[in-house]
Amino acid sequence: MQFGIFTVSDVTTDPTNGTTPTEHERIKALVAIGKKAEEVGLDVFALGEHHNEPFVSSSPTTTLAYIAAQTEKLILSTSTTLITTNDPVKIAEDFAMLQHLADGRVDVMLGRGNTGPVYPWFGKDIRQGIPLAIENYALLHRLWREDVVDWQGQFRTPLQGFTSTPRPLDGVAPFVWHGSIRSPEIAEQAAFYGDGFFANNIFWPKEHYMQLINYYRQRFEHYGHGSADQAIVGLGGQAFMAKKSQDAVTQFRPYFDNAPVYGHGPSLEEFTEQTPLTVGSPQEVIDRYAGMREHFGDYQRQLFLMDHAGLPLKTVLEQLDILGEEVVPVLRKEFAKDRPAHVPDGPTHESLVLAASTTALEPTSVPELVEGV
Amino acid sequence: MTTRTLAVVSAGLSQPSSTRLLADRLTEATVDRLTEQGIEVKVEVIELRDLAHDITNNLLTGFPSPKLDAALGAVTAADGLIAVTPIFTTSYSGLFKSFLDVIEPTALTDLPVLIGATGGTERHSLALDYAIRPVFSYLHAVVAPTAVYAASSDWGSAAASGTLPERIGRAAGELAALMRESDRSSQVTDPFALPAGFSPVGGFGAQ
Q1: Higher pLDDT, A309 or A362
Q2: Any CB–CB contact under 8 A between A14 and chain B?
Q3: Contacts with B206 from chain A: Cβ below 8 Å
Q4: How far is A366 from chain B (nearest CA, A)?
Q5: Domain B2-205 has CATH 3.30.300.30
Q6: Among 3.90.1150.10, 3.20.20.30, 3.40.1550.10, 1.10.287.3510, what is the CATH number of A2-238+296-358?
Q7: What is the pLDDT of residue B159?
Q8: Is the interface score ipTM higher than 0.90?
């Protein structure tokens, strides 16, 4: 089981004092947060990709490489990489490059992006979001697995005799998570390839995500990658903590009330009841998240959103101390209890290299498509 | 015994409201028509005033509260809908439209709908046909030909030809006929149904 944090890289005014970090300050804060994640014993740092204000992370692999150079164990990931508007050839190259620089500590989460204008800015049509995600990934999947690719599709120029360089480290593609909030097509895609499925989970009630993940698990088994409980599931989460529960509520409320996504809507109390957001003592966070496996089954990766809505860097780093030192160690024990041996751990480069070497004689293949599935 | 479910949405803001009064009259008339034909009717009334905060929150967060989710479920799984709004500034009320805005665009397909509206004067009666009917047409609902507008003066008129009770009766008959043929409440919808022809590798990817 892997624990980590994910960020959307928003530049948001701190509602308690009206100060807004500069882009430079926020970018440097992202680096500090990434390094802190390793320092407090977390496994994963995932960074979003955006091409519009108020977000600063337009070039995640640049930032992740910089963090990789200053860390030893941390897995660098994304939340998400836009599979719709990026050229899949450039994704293949960027992440293979990052994989080499970081000695394999890299995976990637693919998402479609829901900001309408970004599509036309990159020459795409949001109404083609699903077909773009499907076709672009079909190409990306081949670019990392086949040395020479001939390819023709609907959305980009054809390729003849193309080799994406550098080739993936140790001949093993970065692990891929497919992130989706509601589309069964993306759950189906993740299941078909035997890739991971990540449910953001933080803005909607868990019942919705339980259905979506259950669907992915069933389809993962259908496509022959293992039993449903061996499917690779990641979940988002969100917490704000203080020793005393009421202090956490008091401190976080102004940030919640003015947050870009849910601010000026439901009350903090309603939102914490209806979504996994937990504001309280470390023990309350432990209890809430230790219970997630009851709803979603044993899973592989838990990421927390800790640095948005204008929270100052100092506060975020304090929160990461609590998360890494008081919460995650207990959660690791809780998640290890009664976890069946056949349920895989979170994927790493080493585990993928090992898996590839044990199946080296088999061709790298994807399952046969069955008509009418 | 055959059963049909009827959802009633009233967007009146005052309590008591003439919008709810019209909704109740339309409901009663529709239930009577169906009962006469041996059809049992389950009625679920949704007062949007009670859901006003939940609807706004859904607009902001993208998901419904449990209370709103139950109301949305009642409407989308019904065999018939009576939807009544006050006319504000020549059109449906903002709350009424906001409720429709948080419904999935395909969730009302084939739903028989009777639309009604209330207002201070008769001069706004056409709002039913230029503002409210197109919304339900867009949603692929089946809107009964007769829409019922009740101005304040209608509540004091005699039961003569062309008056409110006659319009209510005609509209209820139309909705009852549509509901009799509906099997929406017994349909099971698969939220994970993939679009026809969907392939996880796309049209070209399997090459």
Answers
A1: A309
A2: no
A3: 138, 369
A4: 9
A5: no
A6: 3.20.20.30
A7: 66
A8: no
